[in-house]
Amino acid sequence: MHAPDSEFAIEARNIVKRFDGEAAVDGIDLTIPKGSIFGILGPNGAGKTTTLRMLLGIIDPDEGERFLLGSPDPISRAHQVGYLPEERGLYQSMKAYDAIAFMGALRGLPLVKGRKRGRKMMEDHGLGEAADKQIRQLSKGMAQTVQLLGTLVHDPDLIILDEPFSGLDALNQGKLERLIRAQADKGVTVIFSTHVIAHAERLCEEIAIIADGKVPFKGKVSTARNRLRPQVHLETRNLDGPWRTAIPADCQPLGHNWHFTLPESGVEPLLHALVEGGAGIESLSIERPGLHDAFVQIAGEAVARKMEADAANNNGEDAA
Amino acid sequence: MIETIRAAFVIARRDFTAIIFSKSFFFFLLGPLFPLGIGIAAGGLGSQVSRDIDNPVIGVALSSEEADLLLETRNRLTRSLGSKSMPELFVLRDFEGSDEDIIAKLSSTKSLAAILSGTLAKPVLTGSERDVNRWQGKISLLAETAMSQPAAVEIETKFVGQTGSSSERNQLLTAQAGQAILILLTMILAGMVLSNLVEEKTNKIIEILAAAIPMDAIFLGKLFAMLGMALVGIAVWTTTGLSVALLVGGNWDALPSPAVGWPLFGLLMILYFSMAYLLLGSLFLGIGAMATTVREVQTLSMPVTMGQLLVFFLAYSAITKLGEPAEWFAVLFPFSSPFAMIARAAQMDNIWQHGLALVWQAVFTMLIIRFSVMLFRRNVMKSGQAARKKSLFARVAGK
Known about the structure:
The complex is a heterodimer of chains A (320) and B (399). Chain A has 320 residues and is an alpha/beta fold. Chain A is built from 10 helices and 12 strands.
């Protein structure tokens, strides 16, 4: 065993975790560079939480090795890490600012300093009046914010958030996105898991897609998108002519509208052929595929549908 | 290690303050009133044991002929009345029988409850007031029968403050009281320890803790918070008890003195209570950690209480068997060791054995914590629906 390159916040090599003989995580390799925002995408039960728990040292992998901030013993780096678990929890009788300080104290921040910072952070987030209230007196959203602040109070170098947007309304989701960006701007590595592709698409430089305990894709969001060719939406006055050789032969019009994948030759030759061939262009748009399209292509239609259902269920629960 | 201690302190501080400043702590302080009844009942049982083991020997410092005559009479009477009907007699041959000799002999020979001197016609019985009053009648009967004399023999009595025998009996009482107090305190706490991690699990805080500090620190912190709370309770009750005793004006000299002396005995009481609590607490915490609901904890309470009683009975039954295999087993078996050792502290004056016992108990506590942590990490701290649906038995068994 050797320490990985220091440029990585996390490095996992072929980690495996089985429950009752069934692999929940089946040979995952992950390298997450320092200072990046990294998303782990996948439906419920794909192995996201188990992977994060192994990376954090809450459970040990059955096989493989993992390094957190260069250490094979993740707990020894706990003072540099902030973690927001999927299942939120706080001591109900604690005062809000004290709960933040307690979470900091667990990770080495002196309690007195933690209390001061806790109050300040709550004021900065518009919750100053709630600082002295017990957790049980706070709304669900406020309690979640308190827990998030507790994750950050000790100024960690690495923040791991498991489904952080789950349970938040649109307003608070926006706040959280801004907070994640602000942390990344400070050079903090942020890793979060989600089954909402839009969050990953807006925030992440790199993602890993997890499905059935494996990682079918890991890399930049742009790389994922580039696996699919851009789509062309064309409206022409003419339905036939020499220009037809420029578009795929099997492409059929819907009225005067044509939808097809951009040819390998690129935009300029296509445009030239359409103009020269007398297509009579009424409108032309070229769209890059979204991360959702890339996800469907990588993980499969069934997994994508499950993830959409999870997100819908989650929203339903929140609304309830 | 320092990191673990620091983290354990964070957990202990949270738990300690949460408990001490809760309303339920008041009820905890009232708690001893309920088991007081049990204590009184246990004391009754103890006095029965004490009577059973109280097999006194009366030293006979009469002339050789009279001593033999008395022995023969005793044997004759016990054949008719039973062996427990008369005290054992031990003839002290070549014994001068002066008052000083008798007092010295009583102090140095633990087995002698009293000494009979003088003559059969004018016997003198010397011993502690309790023993002399207890045996005076039977010795008189023996003397009358030996002399075939219908008239009652008047026995002159002499009291000495403390004989070896009465001292031994007093130490036994101290041992019993010490054990009873220890077991009562640990019984009060065990149920609380059992449910100690349920709050973290129901509030989902356990994952935050497990990701931040070593699991050993969580267990240790919880144990020490409960220990701290218990010691606060003990301090409150001891202070209250002493204040009441001072106000009432108790007879302090009448307190039976333990073999190691009161100051050391008090210290050992605290240390052995702490160890008994840590040993049983770590085990119960480990078992309770497998439970996910309050109902599961309630289910566990009964076998845990029964287990404690078994441990107590083991230690209690060994109290009069110092140095015998049964007593050694109680001393070496970690869970009964603190109770057996406090009994030793009351009856034996060598101190080094307590150091060894405390180390042994501490090592075993650490082993239990490690094992509990291992089980907890393996069987509870894992994700996946299948793991959550497992039965308590399967989790404990690691299946």
